[in-house]
Amino acid sequence: MVAIATDRLTKVFPDGTVAVDEVTIEAASGEFLVLLGPTGCGKSTILRLVAGLEEETSGHVLIDGQVVDRLSAKDRRVAMVFQDYALYPHLTVAQNIGFPLRAGHEPATGTEARVAEVAEQLGVTDLLHRLPGHLSGGQRQRVAMARAIVRKPQAFLLDEPLSNLDAGLRAELRTDVAALARRLGVTTLYVTHDQTEAMTMADRVAVLRRGVLQQVGPPAEVYGDPATLFVAAFIGTPRTNLLQGAIYLEPERTVVDLGSQLLEIPPNEALAGHHNDRVTVAVRADALRPVPDGGGQGPVLRGKVRLVENLGHEALVHLDTGIVPTPIEESRLEHPETGQHLADVIAEDPPAGHPFRQALARMMPHARQEAQPATARTEYGFYPVYDAELADQPPLGDVVVRVPAPVLPRRGESMTVRVDVDKLMLFDRGGHRIRTA
Ligand SMILES: Nc1ncnc2c1ncn2[C@@H]1O[C@H](COP(=O)(O)OP(=O)(O)O)[C@@H](O)[C@H]1O
Ligand SMILES: [Mg+2]
Fold this sequence. Notes:
InterPro entries: AAA+_ATPase, ABC_transporter-like_ATP-bd, ABC_transporter-like_CS, ABC_transpr_MalK/UgpC-like, Mo/tungstate-bd_C_term_dom, NA-bd_OB-fold, P-loop_NTPase. The protein is of the alpha+beta class. It folds into two domains: about 5-225, P-loop containing nucleotide triphosphate hydrolases (Rossmann fold); about 240-435, no CATH class. The chain has eleven helices and 21 strands. The strands form four sheets. It has a six-stranded mixed β-sheet with strand order 6-7-8-3-9-10, sandwiched between helices. Strand 1 (about 5-10) and strand 2 form a beta hairpin. Helix 2 (about 95-105) crosses helix 3. Magnesium ion binds next to helix 1.
């Protein structure tokens, strides 16, 4: 198999949109690399550039170490599977799977055997005579995969191939798809906005934001050691708590002043130049543990229970702490026409057809335009930052804590949580990590 790489790959569309901005990544031979990021961050454009369906503005695509910028899509020998599968409705499953062979003018003799072979690999042998209209979503997905591998591509490019399926099937198929790619040993670029897919399927995850690569690493690394505030905020369920604070290096101790509360943190040389600096503190729910009131020794946060989301085996408890949360991005979220802050506009919940909704649709054509149903907030792994950035700003001082069932606190009760300060992550005002470990 072959390595797939991009070198400072850039795509600027004629209307000035910088969809991909100097992205350099490499999927090693046989690797399953996931491109993860919110809608509109340039994932599909990167795949299309690699496939040769789109021409780069600058930079290069390399397959097996060779620059392929001038090679046509067909000669790149990569297979792409799209979100909507794009099966031919009037062709049977067998004809759909065999289609790339006939289109490639390969000798007809081998076709049938090859179709049977990949049908077997994908477990769709029984469906070969059916039309796509008579298949379930999961079956259509498998047929699309079969069609993609029939010509033995050098690489797979998969663009949100599971996002049209319901949650249960998605969970089942993500294991299947990753296992298949590994069994075939095919180098794979897999695009998704779903962090759970990325975490469960990837050898490595590449996190993108607005066309810019934020971080590449194994799932445990992007989760446990995020390089930027965006990565810390985007990855993590429940939502990562982001709090505004300031660092004070006192003679006896180092503290993060969160306004209404104070956390003492271990002294650290990395903080030497940061006395008085404003920072964002990212603290995941797994660094917070409820303790009996009073809290005993050690760093704690205190709050009042505002909301309890019961998930059965545990609950997500939202605390009002009086601490100011950090919006992911304060400065750039302005209505392109009126200059009004998007959070304010969204708070007014403009109806469909409102100029803002239209502007949003232009900025993010694939973004859902309707509000997210309440239950989706707590579905594991589905938490697009697009919502957190724009539509779903947490209320002031909202800190989310996991509490194991069955003893759940009640609304209005006060609660103390012990903070594992070794798991606090500090970011400077530019959103860059201040590494303390
Ligand atoms: N043909 C196009 N013309 C202008 N802008 C485009 C075009 N295709 C995509 N874009 C823009 O480029 C950005 C990246 O899009 P895309 O790669 O589809 O993102 P993703 O797949 O991550 O959702 C978006 O802002 C999108 O609106
Ligand atoms: Mg896309």
